[in-house]
Design a protein that fits this description.
The protein has about 180 residues and is of the alpha+beta class. It folds into 2 domains: about 70 residues, no CATH class; about 80 residues, no CATH class. Helix content is about 45%, strand content about 10%. The protein is built from 8 helices and 5 strands. Strands 3, 4 and 5 form a 3-stranded mixed beta sheet that branches. A hairpin with a 4-residue loop joins β1 and β2. It is globular and about 45 Å long. The N and C termini lie far apart (about 40 Å).
């Protein structure tokens, strides 16, 4: 039997972060929270299992592997390439929770016509991310931290990783 290589999709990262945020009992929960189909959620979890970021058959995040990937692999696997100045949803160090802590001349946004900010466009990890501020604000904030890891300088990345650790309970005793 031939072994095939499994490639993560950008959407898999928000799925993993959502699963790390809080236990997920069903694919329907992931579907609703992210605005994706249940079959898409199922496929994402399967790829995350194959990559070792989720424990097989459990919908339980492998914390150490996910943190290592976010800290060291995310910006290489899914780089953010800043584009033109557009109206959109603030992200990276321009969005919550980093906006109040990092002062920078450059602002980053996910394009959205009725967005609250103007800045350089970066592509979100999945198209429906622009709806997260209303759909699931806590996940929106976690993805802005992930974007800071994708596009930020060393200080933004360090601050984002520390905040992800705090919010996702990295290093906390297992439940």
């Amino acid at each position: 039997m031939r072994s095939e290589s499994i490639a993560l999709h950008a959407l898999d990262i928000p799925v993993a972060i959502r699963m790390a945020e809080e236990a997920v009992g069903s694919y329907q929960v992931l579907s609703t929270d992210l605005g994706i189909s249940t079959s898409t959620a199922h496929a994402a979890v399967w790829r995350l299992e194959q990559a070792g970021l989720v424990r097989p058959g459990s919908k339980s995040v492998n914390w150490l592997a996910l943190r290592e990937f976010l800290a060291h692999g995310l910006r290489y696997a899914f780089p953010a390439r800043p584009g033109a100045s557009v109206r959109g949803v603030p992200t990276a160090h321009s969005g919550p929770p980093l906006a109040g802590h990092i002062l920078a001349e450059d602002a980053f946004v996910w394009r959205k016509a009725d967005g609250s900010a103007t800045g350089q466009e970066i592509a979100p990890l999945f198209p429906r991310a622009v709806d997260l501020p209303e759909r699931r604000p806590s996940l929106y904030q976690l993805l802005t931290l992930a974007d800071a890891l994708r596009v930020g300088r060393a200080r933004e990345r360090d601050r984002a990783l520390a905040e992800l650790d705090r919010r996702l309970g990295y290093g906390a005793p297992a439940a």
